[in-house]
Automatic annotation (TrEMBL):
Residues annotated as binding substrate: D17
The organism of origin for this protein: Leyella stercorea
Family assignment from sequence similarity: Belongs to the KdsC family.
PANTHER family with a match to the protein in the record: HAD SUPERFAMILY MEMBERS CMAS AND KDSC, N-ACYLNEURAMINATE CYTIDYLYLTRANSFERASE
Cofactor: Mg(2+)
UniProt name for this protein: 3-deoxy-D-manno-octulosonate 8-phosphate phosphatase
InterPro entries associated with the record: CMP-NeuNAc_synthase, HAD-like_sf, HAD_sf, KdsC_fam
Any one GO molecular function term: N-acylneuraminate cytidylyltransferase activity
Length: 172
């Protein structure tokens, strides 16, 4: 369980590669990386968006497939091609007048380190790098791409008494 006051969380930010997708990619004949997507993560993300939790993606990747996937799930804050994530994080935080302690960031590797050192509740998958595990308040038992998004969103919404709280939970 996440050892943090999850009732104050207003936003959850996810990296994609190694967090919402597995940390390996197949490359098609044009050189485009093909990513995995976990269905339970997808359900949790779309439900969280419906009930007002701010879900944000900050990723170094920049593919149309990833953009379409998360837009389809209702994610409004989608930042792709981010080479320095801390700059994007600060812009996102200001846009919503959020404080660091109202934010969870879920990352898995060195490009996530700066942001994870700022947020109130840094989290990571079980297979995150040693450096990222060392700054995380919560290390999911799930590997990247295998339900870590669902794990974290479900804990937040249960703490806020919003998980399965109304009929919006029973559909996509």
């Amino acid at each position: 369980m996440i050892d943090y006051d999850l009732k104050k969380i207003r936003a959850v930010i996810f990296d994609v590669d190694g967090v919402l997708s597995c940390d390996t990619v197949t490359v098609d004949t044009t050189g485009e990386p093909l990513r995995t997507a976990n269905l339970k993560d997808g359900y949790a993300i779309q439900y969280a968006c419906k009930i007002g939790l701010i879900v944000c993606i900050i990723t170094g990747g920049n593919t149309e497939a990833v953009r379409k996937r998360y837009e389809m799930l209702g994610v409004k804050e989608l930042y792709m091609g981010c080479s320095v994530k801390v700059k994007t994080y600060k812009e996102f935080k200001a846009k919503y007048s959020l404080s660091d302690d109202e934010i969870i960031y879920v990352g898995d590797d060195i490009p996530d380190y700066e942001v994870m050192s700022l947020v109130g509740c840094p989290c990571c998958p079980a297979d995150a790098s040693v450096e990222i595990r060392s700054v995380s308040k919560y290390i999911s038992q799930r590997r990247g791409g295998c339900g870590v998004g669902r794990d974290i969103i479900e804990q937040v919404l249960k703490a806020q008494e919003k998980w399965m709280a109304d009929n919006r939970a029973f559909g996509w």
